[in-house]
Each structure stands twice: as C-alpha cells, then as structure tokens.
Write a structure and sequence with these properties.
By secondary structure, this protein is of the alpha+beta class. The chain has 2 helices and 3 strands; from the N terminus they run H-E-H-E-E.
Length: 68
C-alpha cells in the first residue's frame, strides 16, 4: 500500500525536510497552514520522516485548497 506522501511524490511535487516538530499535533497544524498558502493545492506532512510534500495548483488563495 502506497502512503499519501509517496503518492504525492509520484505526481512530481516538491518535497521538503522540516525540523522542530515535536508532536504530531504540531505537524497537523503546520500541514493545515501550508494548505492555506496561495497556490498550494495539496500538502501532506510525514511526521515520522520529518518531511512535507506539496503540490502547487491553480488556486489563487486561502479557502480554495483541498486536502488529500
């Protein structure tokens, strides 16, 4: 079974290593905030691997992002 982060990686998205997330709840809040950035269509944090995968879309701002 392919994880959501791996599925994003397969669709040519940007992957970033992140630091300073001490708790899973911090990762969730960070992910939600990234999804609200203008131009971001999808974002998924992998807390265990300390990575985030994101894909840009045609949306123009907050409220138009969709979660995966």
């Amino acid at each position: 079974m392919t994880s959501q982060v791996e599925q994003l990686a397969e669709s040519k998205v940007k992957n970033y290593r992140i630091q300073g997330l001490d708790y899973a709840n911090c990762a969730k809040i960070f992910e939600e905030n990234v999804k609200e950035l203008p131009g971001i269509q999808e974002a998924k944090v992998n807390f265990g691997a300390s990575k985030i995968a994101s894909r840009r879309g045609n949306n123009s701002g907050p409220g138009k992002s969709r979660s995966i």
